[in-house]
């Protein structure tokens, strides 16, 4: 085993190689002794208990739903909204209000109580509500009084508490705008922003079709698509937003308009801005995306006990997989396969505040349905105690992913992007490990980092511009010549009282990784918007030219800065008003 040295001259794990080997020997001895003692009992326990145990730990973090009686105060604005839309505006005493609040994915989001919730049934209802809010907004600006605020929610799955909530404001809950309509020629599908991706794949699976969709069945279409959107098919077709051909959107003045992505369209600039620009330009009421032939995929989750050896070996396997996709890797012995889509998840789970259970979970997918393609040889060599990998539908795979993401807990997420440099990936592990130790005994804590590849083919797709007619996206990745790695830092825990320490450790972990990568020359400016924390600025990561384009587009379609000032949820552009 060769020594790996960090950028600052310090050997990373070099002095721990003997410890790795000794731990591996101890683990192997224990494994063998257990098998000799009771092979059938051991096999039954391992095969049944590992994924069920992981889910049980996550479920134990969910607090009982007390069904609180929310008390909200009506203002002139909310009274006018309820008069104009009596079947779609709800206040604290109504069951629909409680249902909306309690259905947010995160516990912290469920504690943010708006004045009222608008659940539009049609795009015209969205238009009506925006016109009313905009008029009150304009009056407040003239009077110098506090202006109204609102937030936009599709699936409500984002971990960040400020993503789709508005304390004492108005929340647009778009989940009833959930239609899925396949075109007559079956080449495209028009989807409401409140639909979940599993609702889309459930329609398309029986027809042998797919779209560039979210990988978690419960994630909403609107939020994921407007933030870019990573799919099992991204190495082939790019981001989810890259495949969208048109949007129906309500602008700041309440106008309902349709944008198309063709460069000759007068709204091509708005379409491009929506491909990564999030909800800064209006409320999208439907989008149309291209379909493509797709049969069942092969994939699932592979579980391993997270010994240090297995953790580091899984990182090396991911590094080797990504290296095989690089355009400048003449020594690669593995053929790049754009049907392959892996994730490496390294996890420690705190059990009752007493000890940690380490796990390595691989999510391996092959969209052509091929079991164990050659590009996964490095992952195949890793020890594992359970695998759910099989040939299955896209919907089935997404629902399995959903099953490992239990709602109703406190949650943290932050992200960064780095080059596929082994020292940097090892530093990610070392920093994650350091702050895990500092988190002490946060009860019910799941502390995790995830590595995901971004292949060059994914980044250079140019926004669905495969036929030369599209306008591209605004992510700033189209000129990238080498693959990148998305690093996601995650925490899930039980008690709100532990929020400060978890947030601090999560932020420091992310910022120290950023600092190391910058010093080493392996940092990349891009940060995947759908993984960003509220203190991160994804638009700065798109590059100055793209950020300037987004600001210019915002000023063109929203000259008063309504969606920058009045919309409080999500990530903002600046200098737009």
TrEMBL record:
Give UniProt keywords alphabetically.
FAD, Flavoprotein, Membrane, Oxidoreductase, Transmembrane, Transmembrane helix
Provide an example Pfam family for this protein.
FAD_binding_4
* MF terms in GO: FAD binding; oxidoreductase activity
Alphabetical list of InterPro entries matching this protein: FAD-bd_PCMH, FAD-bd_PCMH-like_sf, FAD-bd_PCMH_sub2, FAD-linked_Oxidoreductase, Oxid_FAD_bind_N
- What are the FAD-binding PCMH-type domain coordinates in residue numbering? 110-294
Superkingdom classification of source:
Eukaryota
**What PROSITE patterns does this protein's entry cite?**
FAD_PCMH
Instruction: Return the SUPFAM superfamilies for the record.
Output: FAD-binding/transporter-associated domain-like (SSF56176)
The residues that cross the membrane are: 37-58
The similarity annotation says:
Belongs to the oxygen-dependent FAD-linked oxidoreductase family.
What name does this protein carry?
FAD-binding domain-containing protein
Organism encoding this protein: Pseudovirgaria hyperparasitica
């Amino acid at each position: 085993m060769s020594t790996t040295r960090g950028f600052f001259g310090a050997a990373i794990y070099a002095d721990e190689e003997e410890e790795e080997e000794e731990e591996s020997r101890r683990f192997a001895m224990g494994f063998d002794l257990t098998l000799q003692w009771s092979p059938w009992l051991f096999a039954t326990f391992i095969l049944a208990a590992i994924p069920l145990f992981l889910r049980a730990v996550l479920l134990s973090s969910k607090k009982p739903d007390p069904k609180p009686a929310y008390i909200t105060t009506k203002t002139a604005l909310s009274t006018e909204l309820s008069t104009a839309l009596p079947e779609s505006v709800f206040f604290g005493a109504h069951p629909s209000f409680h249902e909306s609040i309690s259905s947010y994915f995160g516990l912290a989001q469920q504690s943010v109580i708006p004045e009222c919730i608008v659940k539009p049934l049609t795009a015209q209802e969205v238009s009506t509500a925006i016109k009313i809010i905009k008029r009150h907004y304009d009056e407040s600006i003239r009077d110098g009084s506090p202006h109204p605020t609102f937030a936009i929610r599709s699936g409500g799955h984002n971990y960040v508490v400020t993503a789709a909530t508005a304390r004492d404001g108005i929340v647009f809950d778009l989940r009833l705008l959930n239609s899925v309509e396949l075109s007559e020629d079956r080449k495209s599908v028009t989807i409401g922003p409140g639909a979940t991706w599993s609702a889309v794949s459930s329609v398309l699976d029986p027809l042998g079709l797919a779209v560039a969709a979210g990988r978690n069945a419960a994630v909403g279409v609107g939020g994921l698509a407007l933030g870019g959107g990573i799919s099992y098919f991204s190495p082939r077709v790019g981001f989810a937003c890259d495949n969208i051909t048109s949007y129906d959107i309500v602008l700041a003045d309440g106008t309902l308009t349709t944008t198309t992505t063709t460069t000759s369209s007068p709204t091509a600039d708005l379409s491009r801005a929506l491909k990564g620009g999030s909800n800064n330009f209006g409320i999208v009421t439907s989008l149309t995306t291209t379909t493509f032939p797709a049969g069942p995929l092969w994939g699932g989750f592979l579980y391993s006990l997270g010994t240090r050896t297995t953790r580091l070996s899984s990182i090396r396997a991911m590094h080797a997989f990504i290296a095989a996709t690089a355009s400048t890797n003449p020594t690669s012995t593995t053929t790049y396969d754009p049907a392959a889509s892996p994730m490496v998840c390294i996890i420690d789970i705190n059990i009752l505040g007493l000890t940690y259970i380490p796990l390595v979970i691989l999510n391996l997918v092959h969209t052509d349905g091929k079991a164990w393609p050659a590009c996964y040889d490095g992952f195949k060599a890793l020890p594992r105690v359970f695998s759910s990998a099989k040939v299955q539908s896209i919907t089935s795979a997404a629902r399995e992913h959903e099953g490992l993401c239990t709602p109703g807990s406190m949650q943290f997420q932050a992200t960064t992007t780095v080059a596929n440099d082994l020292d940097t990936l090892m530093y990610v592990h070392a920093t994650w490990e350091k702050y895990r130790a500092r988190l002490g005994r946060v009860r019910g804590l799941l502390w995790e980092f995830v590595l995901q590849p971004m292949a060059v083919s994914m980044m250079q797709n140019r926004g669905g511009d495969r036929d030369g007619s599209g306008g591209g996206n605004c992510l700033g990745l189209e000129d990238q010549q080498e693959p990148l790695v998305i690093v996601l830092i995650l925490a899930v825990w039980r008690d709100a009282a532990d929020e400060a320490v978890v947030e601090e450790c999560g932020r420091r972990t992310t910022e120290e990784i950023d600092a190391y990568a910058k010093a080493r020359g392996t940092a990349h400016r891009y940060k995947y918007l759908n993984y960003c924390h509220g203190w991160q600025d994804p638009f700065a990561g798109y590059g100055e030219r793209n950020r300037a384009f987004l600001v210019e587009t915002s000023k063109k379609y929203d000259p008063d800065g309504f969606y920058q000032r009045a919309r409080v949820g999500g990530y903002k552009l600046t200098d737009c008003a």
